């Protein structure tokens, strides 16, 4: 039975999720809260191997449904091997991306259908939805510029999609905000890092 809290961060490329998640982790640790950071696709060995296959710029011929199924497979393994055990130990689990990425990227932007992609993901997650999700909103061209500037950031197969695809990803997330208004909280990610962090802390204070 789940005793911990499952929090996810979402957004278009370069929204600043990794940056702000680290700040939230430090803040929670200072308060003595047991917190685990993880990411999708990845977080454990099998899912990191699937990540390599999905995101390698060499795999240009990958079919959209194959892509959606691989994300769901990586998600399943990550959940059973890491997320669920950590929640059972009562930890706060913070995950960089989760099911909403599949709904926005594969369901909406790739055109596979949000409901269809939700369907294959229900099989993978078996009803384990996040308790709280932050959606970091940013215009795609600003996010992509940030990634290009950041020297250490890998440029993956999805980053290389045309700008229209990234606009559709953002539109997809906006639809999800309407679909799950209680779970997903929108934050303006075009602000300074400190302002983004403070907005997130305001929500967390009310939640934790
Ligand atoms: N609010 C901000 N203002 C300006 N630059 C930022 C801001 N937040 C993050 N950055 C910078 O933008 C780049 C991307 O940030 P980060 O890696 O945190 O984004 P991300 O959302 O995790 O990216 P991805 O799409 O790969 O998941 C980094 O170089 C980071 O320092
Ligand atoms: C979980 C998930 C991710 N994606 C995409 C989003 C990004 O382009 C990459 C992950 O790279 P990041 O630098 O770690 O953000 O994968 C997706 O399309 N569908 C998903 O379910």
TrEMBL record:
Claim: ATP-binding is one of the keywords in the record: yes
A single Gene Ontology CC term: cytosol
PROSITE patterns: THYMIDYLATE_KINASE (PS01331)
EC number: 2.7.4.9
Reaction catalysis annotation: dTMP + ATP = dTDP + ADP
Enzyme class: transferase
Function: Phosphorylation of dTMP to form dTDP in both de novo and salvage pathways of dTTP synthesis.
Similarity comment: family membership: Belongs to the thymidylate kinase family.
NCBIfam families reported in the protein's UniProt record: DTMP_kinase
This protein's name: Thymidylate kinase
Organism for this UniProt entry: Priestia veravalensis
Lineage: Bacteria, Bacillati, Bacillota, Bacilli, Bacillales
């Amino acid at each position: 039975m789940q005793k911990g809290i499952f929090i996810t961060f979402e957004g278009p490329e370069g929204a600043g999720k990794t940056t702000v998640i680290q700040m939230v982790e430090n803040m929670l640790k200072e308060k003595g809260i047991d917190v685990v950071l993880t990411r999708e696709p990845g977080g454990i060995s099998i899912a990191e191997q699937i990540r390599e296959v999905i995101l390698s710029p060499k795999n240009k011929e990958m079919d959209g449904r194959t892509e959606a199924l691989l994300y769901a497979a990586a998600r399943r393994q990550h959940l059973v091997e890491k997320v669920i055990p950590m929640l059972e130990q009562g930890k706060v689990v913070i995950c960089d991306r989760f099911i909403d990425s599949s709904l926005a990227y594969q369901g909406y932007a790739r055109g596979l259908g949000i409901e269809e992609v939700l369907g294959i993901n229900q099989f993978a997650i078996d009803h384990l939805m996040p308790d709280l999700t932050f959606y970091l909103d940013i215009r795609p061209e600003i996010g992509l510029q940030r990634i290009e500037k950041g020297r250490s950031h890998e440029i993956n197969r999805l980053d290389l999609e045309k700008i229209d695809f990234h606009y559709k990803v953002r539109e997809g997330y906006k639809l999800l905000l309407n679909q799950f208004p209680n779970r997903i909280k929108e934050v303006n990610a075009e602000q300074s890092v400190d302002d983004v962090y403070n907005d997130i802390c305001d929500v967390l204070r009310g939640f934790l």
